Amino acid sequence: MKAVFDPDRVLAGGLAAIRDQFHVPHAFPPDVIAAAEAAASRTPAGHVDRTGLPLVTLDPASSTDLDQAFAIEASGGDLLLRYAIADVAWFVDDDDPIDREAWRRGATLYLPDGKAGLYPPVLSEGAASLLPDGPRPAVLFTVRVAPDGEARLEAAERALVRSRAKLAYETAGDADLPPQFAELARRIALAEARRGAARVDPPEQEVVRRPDGGYALAFRARHASEARNAALSLATNLAIAELLQAHHTGLFRVMAEPDAPAISRLRNTARALGIAWPEAQSLVAFRTGLDPADPHQAALMLAIRRAGQGASYAPWRAGTSPWHAAVAAPYVHATAPLRRLADRYVIRAALAVMAGQPVPPVVGQAFERLPKVMGRADAVSGQIDRAVVDLAEAVMLAGREGEEFAAIVTDVDVRGARMQLADLPIVTRIDAPGAAPGTPLRVRLVDADPADRAVRFEAIGAVP
């Protein structure tokens, strides 16, 4: 779970119930641990020595499962991004105990009190992680970024690398990062704007204590380095997607734009939050101007993220053009193999294609199987996310029964009306017969039960 943090552990009891409900793994089987410990002791072979590159990592301060390290250098008017990705496939053999367990899990699951990793910590937070405590095997991608932001994959190789520093979003300054870091991110954003892309990265939420002793959901400030760091992964994933599509192979991340009903709900949400959205302005144009530092706009960014028709995975097919609406281009996941199973196979395909070799049959077969496995992992992750948000909302509102709030109806379906509170990032159902989308309401909190992760409101009148 990446959306809610719980520094005071007020969600602890409820989180335990969520872990039980969704069968979140507590540990790895003994045979997987034994295989991982043996794999961690392997000596890299067939890796080119690139330990001289001035690579650094940039992640949250507490992260130890470091998928990526990077260096940037000028090449005429272009920038060369040297992007090292953890070489998980070096440690994991096809159909060994680690591999079979990873296929069962699909992805790392995140909750505010910890994660259930895709791979055992001896690998994901040790031998395979790009920590700055020694050489690590990696897959090194070289991405050439032109002045207009177009990114092209120039090289891919297995390499031995050494991170110079473990930098944190919270503390890293410009002097710690490559001089071209901000310029590369600016170029990627320029290309996004030209394509009409509009990625929405809402800030994360955390449970904070109010002066009266209660709790509230607040948005954490998003550091500029986070957005810039995301641009590096974006550029690499786009470049790999272009390569694989041209060679008629790959596993693509695909997503359609929000449909008309979803956009209508978002317009009502914007109205509830007091945010002006001109009728003639498209969602793409509107969302690019939202400011995550403003709590109301941050809440709307969160609503936009949840309003899409959902991203999924699809293998390359003749006669089709994989498309990801949020990035307005074909797109793959290749830069987080410690956390997502699919990335390991996309990386293997990219290495083969760049070497002029056929994609291994086991990789092609995996591309056919992975959509179902990753879809299941995405679904479980989404259910956990929703359960955690429901829990946090109930904890936040507990003890405030009887208080009145302004709200607006965002949509109505066979299950009744759904409303957005005007001053809190809460969307919930309410019994409001006759209410239509866009109807302003005055509501009273009837009950907030953290044990059931439920809140209940009653309508007490319309707001003119």
From TrEMBL:
GO biological process, any: mRNA catabolic process
Top-level lineage group: Bacteria
GO molecular function: RNA binding; RNA nuclease activity
SMART domains in the record: RNB (SM00955)
GO CC annotations, alphabetized: cytosol
Residue span(s) of domain RNB: 47-356
Cross-referenced Pfam families: RNase_II_C_S1 (PF18614), RNB (PF00773)
Protein name per Swiss-Prot or TrEMBL: Exoribonuclease R
